[in-house]
Each structure stands twice: as C-alpha cells, then as structure tokens.
Design goal:
By secondary structure, the chain is an alpha/beta fold. The protein folds into 2 domains: 168 residues, 2-Layer Sandwich (Nucleotidyltransferase, domain 5), CATH 3.30.420.40; 178 residues, 2-Layer Sandwich (Nucleotidyltransferase, domain 5). The chain has 11 helices and 10 strands. The chain has a 5-stranded mixed β-sheet with strand order 3-2-1-4-5, sandwiched between helices. Helix 6 packs across helix 7 and helix 7 crosses helix 9. The two termini are 33 Å apart. The structure holds 5'-O-[(R)-(carboxyoxy)(hydroxy)phosphoryl]adenosine and zinc ion. The site of zinc ion (ZN) has 5 residues, from helix 5. The site of 5'-O-[(R)-(carboxyoxy)(hydroxy)phosphoryl]adenosine (KG4) has 19 residues, from helix 6 and helix 7.
Length: 376
C-alpha cells in the first residue's frame, strides 16, 4: 500500500469528521478539480484539463466555448479525483468552488456543478475567490511563508501588490491602471506572431535574446507609488514591429491598416521578446521591492500565472536578497489555474460552509472585500 492510499484510507475511516474538501475551478480556460485534506494540510488528488488547444485558433479565450468545455470535462474530472483517492461523496466534508472573478458563463458551470453535487451528497458549499486561491497557494509550498507578507499577484487579469496579514486580511498596496502583466505578455506575444497564450511562448523565445536590444518603456517606474501601467508597452512593441516590417503608420484621420506581426524567421524576434520581458519584469520587481521597503515586511510571495516566469523569479529573488527579504513561490504547477488552490482555500474557510445551494457567481469581485474567516 502506498503512502498516498494509506492516507486516503485514514480519511475514509474518520468518515463524517474528515476534513476532505473537494475544490472546483472553472473561472477561465482551465477546468481544475482537487481534493484537499484539511486535517493533514495536503492535496490528496487532483485533475486538470486545459482548454489552450481549443482557444488557440482564435488567439484568445472564447467565453462560450470555455463554458461548453467546462460542462464537458467538469464531471469527468470529479470522477477521476474520487476514483484516484478511493473515496465517495459521502467522505467529502464540503464542496468549494470558484465564485469569481472570471467569465460569468464559465463560473456558472462550476458553481452549478458544485451546488448539485453538494446538494445530492447533503454536504455544505464554500464559495471561493479565485485570486485568494492564487494568493494563498504559496502556503502549499515548503517552506511556506508566515503572515504578514507582501503578495505580488500577477495573472492574465490582475496585477496587484497586497499586504497580507492573515487569511482574508488583505490591503491593496498597488494595482495596474490599465493592462495586467499577463495581458502585456499575451498582447506582445501576439505582435511577435506567437500563439495563445503567449506568455510562456514569449518567455521561451526570449531565452536566446538580448534584453537591451530594444528600448521598451517602463511606465510609472518612478511614480513614487506602487501602481503599474502596461498599456504603453504594447504600443511600443506594435511600433517596433511596424518599423521592423517596414509597415507605415496609418496617416492621421485615415482608416487604420491592420497591425502586422513579426514573421517567425525575423532575426530580431528573440531580441524583441527579451526586451519586452525585461521591461515587464523590471516594473514588477521594482514595485515589489518598493512595497517591501514601504511596509517594512521581509517576506514576499508571488502568485498567478506570470509567477511561472523564470526571469521574474530570478530577478525578484536577487533583488529581495539585496534588501534582506525572502521570496516565496507556489510550486510551478500551482501558478496557473488549478483546483488545488480552490480546495485549499475551501479548507481554510470551512467555517463558512453552508447548506445554501443558490447559484450566485461574481464575475467582478475585489479581493479587498473579503474578511477573515470565523474559526470552526
Ligand atoms: O493565473 P492564470 O493561469 O489565469 C488567470 O487567472 O488569468 O494566468 C494566466 C496568465 C496568462 O497571461 C499567461 O500568458 C501568463 O499567465 N503566463 C506567463 C507564463 N506562464 C503563464 N507569463 C509569462 N511567463 C510565463 N512563463
Ligand atoms: Zn488565475
């Protein structure tokens, strides 16, 4: 018997008192399901289905397709997780699901699935904030950070610096005034002729490039606050691509011509990728270090999809070390969307579990609206 299945047997033996939380993530383009054991603090089993191939031909997420795909895979993944861990719905203590923020239709699929199962099993439901899932995922790593800490949240839709004093105790320190860092990666990647989602592909292309080859702006770098701006970066890349491909800007007042992309064999492609990545990383690192100095805290965690970026990890680790601070990351597999981070928050918020099966998703929902959970 493996250690994994022994643990599962122990959870089953404890029956109704078990701390097994089933988590369901469906806010965007990943269907994620996981079982987290609140009594051991460990992920028992997880399953993930990525929709990347489904959306790639469209260059971005198509919400209607995302919802339909969550319908197709949700129940299948839940089945997988229950089979892997050898438990039934009876052994589950509560069902957690992503209530928001995210795509309304996609969220509704996960919420409906969670509510139906919880109702059928007679178990309570826990609505979870997707970004709290990301924010607390470094607690699943070893070593884990102690509260209080600064968190840099960098995903496709968010770029925020938060002060985190405990679960649910979040103070916004800085935010993007326009595009998110992940969006800047993805939009720049598109201009470089890369497929969706461009972030990881741009990072790969940048590996052999010269980060100083192109002067890409770092807006708000010296603004004195902790805010970010990435929209100008996309314009700078678009202008470089026009210059490199010899495409003229449309005359004032003229109908705009379509934006060219850099051909795959262009000699400057990896230099431009490296320069864009360096500009995004510089902005993120400089404001993160400023947040540490401003709060006097010595720990910073990085969470969200862009947290998988190696350049960002290396630069932030080096910068933090210079000021005597430590950086904590979730395991790379937990940087992008997954069910484990939702089940984990569900376990931390078990006291909020309710036998209330009303479907109520929150596509827009600020992290700072959350409160500390009551204790069990
Ligand atoms: O957290 P996430 O999986 O989904 C959202 O909640 O948005 O983040 C997705 C974002 C995308 O913009 C993707 O391009 C970016 O994270 N990303 C990366 C890397 N891996 C994912 N960006 C840069 N470098 C990476 N290695
Ligand atoms: Zn996410």
């Amino acid at each position: 018997m493996t250690e994994h299945s022994r643990k599962t047997a122990a959870s089953r033996a404890s029956g109704r008192k078990s701390g097994l939380v089933l988590g369901i993530e469906s806010s965007c383009d990943e269907t994620g399901v996981a079982l987290f054991d609140a009594s051991t603090g460990k992920v028992v089993a997880e399953a993930l289905h990525s929709q990347i191939a489904l959306h790639a031909p469209y260059g971005g997420v198509v919400p209607e397709l995302a919802s339909r795909d969550h319908i197709k895979y949700g129940l299948r993944l839940i089945d997988q997780v229950l089979v892997i861990s050898g438990i039934t719905g009876n052994d589950v203590r509560a069902v957690a699901y992503t209530q928001g923020p995210g795509l309304a239709g996609a969220l509704l699929v996960g919420a409906q699935l969670a509510a139906s199962l919880a109702f059928a099993w007679g178990k309570p439901l826990i609505p979870v904030h997707h970004m709290e899932g990301h924010l607390l995922s470094p607690l699943l790593a070893d070593p884990e950070p102690n509260f209080p800490f600064v968190a840099l949240l960098v995903s496709g839709g968010h770029t925020q610096l938060m002060r985190v004093d405990g679960v649910g105790e979040y103070t916004l320190l800085g935010d993007t005034i326009d595009d998110a860092a992940g969006e800047a990666f993805d939009k720049s990647a598109k201009l470089l002729g890369l497929a969706y989602p461009g972030g990881p592909l741009l990072a790969k292309l940048a590996e052999g490039g010269n980060p100083k080859a192109f002067a890409i702006p770092r807006p708000l770098l010296h603004s004195g606050d902790l805010n970010f701006s990435f929209a100008g970066l996309k314009t700078a890349v678009a202008n470089e691509v026009r210059r490199l491909t010899g495409t003229a800007l449309p005359a004032r007042g003229a109908a705009s011509t379509s934006q060219p992309t850099l051909p795959a064999d262009h000699p400057s492609r990896s230099d431009l990728a490296a320069s864009v990545q360096a500009a995004i990383v510089d902005s993120l690192v400089s404001k993160s270090l400023a947040a540490l100095k401003q709060t006097g805290l010595k720990h910073i965690v990085v969470a969200g999809g862009v947290g998988a970026n190696t350049r960002l990890r290396d630069a932030l680790t080096a910068g933090a070390a210079r000021i005597g601070a430590n950086v904590f990351y979730p395991p790379v597999a937990l940087c992008t969307d997954n069910g484990a981070m939702i089940a984990h928050v569900g376990a931390l918020r078990l006291a909020e579990a309710k036998n209330d099966y009303a479907i109520n998703v929150r596509p827009r929902w600020a992290l700072s609206e959350l409160h500390a959970p009551a204790s069990l």
